[in-house]
Amino acid sequence: MNPKTSDQLATGVIYALVAAVIGILIFLLGYILMTGIPHISGHFLTSAAQSFRAGGGVRDQLFNSLYLLVLTLIISFPIALGSGIYLSEYAPENWVTSLIRTSVEVLSSLPSVVVGLFGYLLFVIRFGMGFSILAGAIALTFFNLPLLTRSIEESLQDVSELQREAGLSLGLSRWKTITGIVLPAAVPGILTGIILSAGRVFGEAAALIYTAGQSAPTVNYGDWNPMDSASFLNPMRPAETLAVHIWKLNTEGVTPDAAQISSGASAVLIVVILLFNLMARLLGNWMYKKMTATR
Predict the structure, then answer these.
(1) How many CA atoms lie within 13 A of 81 on its CB side?
(2) Of 43, 83, 168, 177, which one has the fewest beta carbons inside 10 Å?
(3) Which superfamily does 40-292 belong to?
(4) Tens digits of per-residue pLDDT, 175-215?
């Protein structure tokens, strides 16, 4: 086989594999959306779930998922950003750094149910947090940190060394070079890591069953006092998320229309993740232009 033919054959195989992956993704998304969107309505999105009667919605579960996502990112992003900057810009290449990177990789491979059991034993039982949003957010931080840290480190390493040298040659300190030149250039890659980790957090169920709980008590959406037990902002209240609600419907199925609610909730989950990705991309592009002064 001559080189031209082998190159064409390899290119065709690669295109076929890419088409297969895209086809599978389109099939999964299409099936979930086509079976779930007909069950989505204004009442479905704004009404509380029902335990034994038909006609329930996913209002509380949707808000709990978004609240837990924001709280998890608030906790994990500063830690991951600091770790990524250290590993990329300051850490020497020795056995300590290799051990840190290996630990990050091992932590990223832990099953989510193990993280959930760890959070249950430590935060729910040992620290007395009970089933709460805060316990779930801290547990998901352990689940989220490896991917986010690795993404930030790789994004910083992808920035050209010439940009660092240019900053240092202008008399900027190393820290000012990192914050003023390297970080703005790495914003698209960092944002990609945030989107990937946010998708995992938003769709996570196993870890939250043991930490955030499986109940969605009625809360007062007009009370902005986080210390009130009935306030929707109270981080110490139990919170059933959308993913946990879907799991619960498909395992217990005590409501007459459990299949319809599960399909609708799955479609809402997919749509919210897609919208979050789109808004994050738009925000990231705007931030990149602002921070790098590009037009």
Answers:
(1) 16
(2) 43
(3) MetI-like (1.10.3720.10)
(4) 898 888 888 888 888 888 888 888 888 888 888 999 988 87
